[in-house]
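User: Fold this; tokens only.

Assistant: Input:
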Amino acid sequence: IIMFNITNFLKKIKLPFFANFEIYFDLGTSITKIAIKDKGVILREPTFLGYNSRIKDYSFIGNEAKTILGKTPDFIKVVRPIVSGVISDFDAEVFLLQKFLERSVYLYSGNKMIKPMMIGIATVPTIATEIEQKAVKEALLKIGMSQVFLVEKPLATAAGSGINVFSHEPTLIADLGGGLIELSIVGSSGILSQKTLKNAGDQMNKVIFNYVYLKYGIILGEATCENLKIDILNFKNTEKVVVTRGKSLENGLPKSVKIKSSDINEALRTNFNQIIDGIKELIESSPPEVVDEVMQKGVILTGGLSRIEGIDKFFEDELKVSVSCSDKYEYATINGLMKLTANEEAFSKIIIS
């Protein structure tokens, strides 16, 4: 009891090591980002773990775990604890976050007495259920956060893309991520209308796998499919050619084929058309006043897929409305979180209770 009273007293007099310490989490399906107030982003690593069934523990995390994808012995399985923006493997996610904190945040490693009071602020997708929101909260509390606040991801992404989410001017933002495509009209401290699609970056990798399998008769690894999407997909009609090696369907031996930009474009055209249709449906289902302002201001693209060359012009031609790409698409969500917490009164309006 005496120790408890001393600790409370020290908190009140605001000694440096008892000061509140705000930590921001962007728990992405593909990439996890962690930032600290006044310091910015301090960690950006893939949301992957390598589970070793022999020792019944995780042997690889982050970049290392992604590197070994498709190249592991039978007793090591690469785990992705977040699927479609929500936690699917709670224990794995807690372990991953704990290790990420040790790598980046902990200033006083192992000394619980002088660890700062850590406040965790994280985003969750709009479609996350109460149970899925609670899972995020529980995971952050388990890794040492004393308090946790959740914010809907589109609001943070919009703020990080330079939009004032507290203004009464609606803006349409399309977050083209790895696990989810989140299409949202934001304004007046909230989300006016929203549509979520699951044909995001990860699903596109599977489409590329099937396309190459059927057209060229070779089997590619997941990492190779992702690299093809990143390296040669473009909407500028620029034909790039990559020699890709896979496993032949005929004899199981290595086989090299030339894959062109037009191949990947053809494979993924349906996916991008579905995104465009989703944006059209979102606009059509909105009130007339909202539609008018959205048409004037245009659409903002962010997320990993927004880096594809010529995607803004392609969307513009299909939607007949101006389209721009966010400058810092990679860090839009986590930068937005930091921006939103700058004004405590305004931030309190958007916290998920």
